[in-house]
């Protein structure tokens, strides 16, 4: 009997592993050449100043629409792209697209906000990252002051000397460095102490239940106070309700990003929002 169950268990795992492997293979297959086929597009989500409720920045977020798989979440395809190395081409694409788009907005007189781009730890393993960023800025005719780079703890855990050098070079170019997903890592506090961040982004998971959960309120309140003590600007992610905004404002949060104001939208849709804002 035990033997039989053992065999069943074995085949159960084999099946699910096969399914998982097949899914993964299909994902990789479809991802191959997808950039050249134009399946990737950069969307933009507004970051809104708490005091004025004006858009003071946007975050570039990658979208993938595939004929076979449909729309695939970055939570699914970014990790795969990091493993296959495609993230280098994707990262370059996002940087180039978003900066050219920002240049276009600036030329329309929509020039009082910054562009934030997410960087993968894999991109930081390349010694030419800072040069790549510098070149993308130059091609778009922009200075570093209008660019913000969002990095996670994963970046800081990999290859210290190279990461130190790259961050120092980027900072010297006037680029703003934001710590993304704050609170979800293992040693956010020690990294805050070690690296020259300008912005702290509180992860959406802490903001979610802020209206219902007193413990989450305490954590967010403390994180904001700490960031302010260190001279960092605070952005809260995933703000979906007026009540969440009210609580965050009370704690002194500077900027919010979330569905309350807007989901990530196409460049065209954001243009309309910016033009609308300019009227007021
Ligand atoms: P992230 O950098 O923390 O981006 C914020 C995520 O929260 C986005 O998910 C955004 O759509 C979502 N979000 C914002 N406001 C709300 C809200 O009010 N409610 C809810 N439920 N969600 C909200 P998205 O676009 O699916 O991206 C997920 C993650 O994928 C990003 O997290 C980032 O880590 C990664 N990612 C996306 N685009 C890129 C990229 O171009 N490069 C790299 N390296 N990573 C990227
Ligand atoms: Mg981000
Ligand atoms: Mg984030
Ligand atoms: Mg996040």
TrEMBL record:
It comes from the Bacteria. Residues 24-278 form the EAL domain. Coiled coil: none annotated. This is cyclic-guanylate-specific phosphodiesterase. The chain holds residues 445 to 724 of 724 of the full protein.
């Amino acid at each position: 009997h035990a033997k039989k169950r053992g065999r069943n268990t074995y085949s159960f795992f084999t099946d699910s592993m096969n399914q998982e492997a097949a899914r993964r293979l299909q994902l990789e297959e479809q991802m191959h050449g997808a950039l050249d086929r134009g399946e990737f597009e950069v969307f933009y989500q507004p970051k809104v100043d708490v005091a004025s409720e004006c858009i003071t920045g946007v975050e570039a977020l990658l979208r993938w629409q595939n004929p076979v798989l449909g729309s695939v979440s970055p939570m699914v395809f970014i990790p795969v792209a990091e493993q296959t190395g495609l993230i280098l081409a994707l990262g370059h694409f996002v940087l180039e697209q978003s900066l050219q788009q920002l240049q276009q907005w600036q030329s329309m007189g929509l020039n009082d906000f910054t562009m934030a781009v997410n960087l993968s730890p894999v991109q930081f393993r390349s010694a030419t990252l800072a040069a790549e960023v510098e070149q993308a800025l130059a091609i778009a005719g922009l200075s570093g002051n209008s660019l913000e780079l969002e990095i996670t703890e994963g970046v800081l855990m990999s290859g210290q000397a190279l990461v130190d050098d790259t961050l120092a070079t980027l900072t010297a170019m006037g680029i703003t460095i934001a710590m993304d997903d704050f609170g979800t890592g293992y040693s956010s506090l020690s990294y805050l102490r070690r690296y020259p961040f300008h912005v702290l982004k509180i992860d959406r998971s802490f903001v979610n239940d802020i209206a219902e959960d007193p413990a989450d309120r305490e954590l967010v309140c403390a994180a904001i106070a700490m960031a302010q003590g260190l001279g960092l600007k605070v952005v809260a992610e995933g703000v979906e309700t007026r009540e969440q905004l009210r609580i965050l404002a009370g704690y002194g949060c500077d900027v919010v990003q979330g569905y309350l104001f807007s989901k990530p939208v196409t460049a065209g849709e954001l243009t309309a929002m910016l033009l609308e804002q300019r009227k007021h």
